[in-house]
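Issue: ligand-bound run for PMV - logging full I/O for the record.

Environment: standard queue, default settings, no custom constraints.

Inputs:
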Amino acid sequence: MKKVTASAPGKLLLFGDHAVVYGHPCIVTAIDQRLSAIVELRGDNLFTVNAVDLKVVAYQKSIATVGQGEIPKAVQFLETILEQFLLQHPQKTGITVSTQSDFSSQFGFGSSSAVSVAFAKALYAAFGTDATKEDLFKLVYQSILKVQKVGSGFDVAAAIWGGTLYYVTPAKVVEKISITSLPLAVGYTGLKVSTAKIVQEVAVARTKDLTRIDGLFQRSTEIVEQARAALEAANWSEVGHLMNQNQTLLAELGVSSPELYRLIEAAKKAGAYGAKLSGAGKGDCMIAVVEAAQKNQVEAAINQTGGQALSVQPNAEGVRIEKE
Ligand code: PMV
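Outputs:
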């Protein structure tokens, strides 16, 4: 029976957090922490999932009932992708999906989008159906929106295209930013907060004070445009300076937190050019731009301030078939 393994990278949002939901650009980088999905065609008509990381073992139903009935949270993304795929490419053959992760879903590195993209890629390949990057994006993004209701899809784009991207939702603009390196330190706050909840809070704040919030998003666009040029020029002190400005803006938006603030200030004090939260905010990770010579110091400062320094390389390759 045909068996395909695909892997896709997680991500870090470098600039433009939240503003990207409202049509403004962001800059996202794919990271070297990957998620894999193995899809195996079966001799029967069952859909089976084994995702040890998600604590799912031998979830099973008939392929004809995919998308129907009560779907456990842990398999919602996978089952919705299969449901959408089957609507376009009806099949009677069952499949087994197994997933594996390099990283914990706690960190906010985009495990849902990476596993979804790896699964979609392996699914197309297992059934011998051609799919462009745009086809993959459409399938995964519509499935994620169906489950999660909100999201710009920047994480899906990073998992598909890889590298470092200038992105406008929903993949209206996806442009690779040509960089050879990006010296980053990453610190985890230890706090897991719901992205959907924070995105919702920002939406409520925006309805109450449209002019002020849209002014912040306009400023975010200016920072993103300058950051793109600074990244291309490998001008790290300028990239750091722009991260500081982006962080100030995100704090004004109300999505920072004392934990993020402590790690960001500690990283800057220890020699980083600049630092900011990455993603929805309140918890998850902060990032800092730091020369190699200061990286150990900055990571030690993050660890001493109650955070956890994580070893992450940016600008990683997008989704790929590992084995067929
Ligand atoms: O919390 P994360 O890492 O999934 O990032 C969310 C980024 C937002 O801009 C707040 C939302 C989005 O979908 O773009």
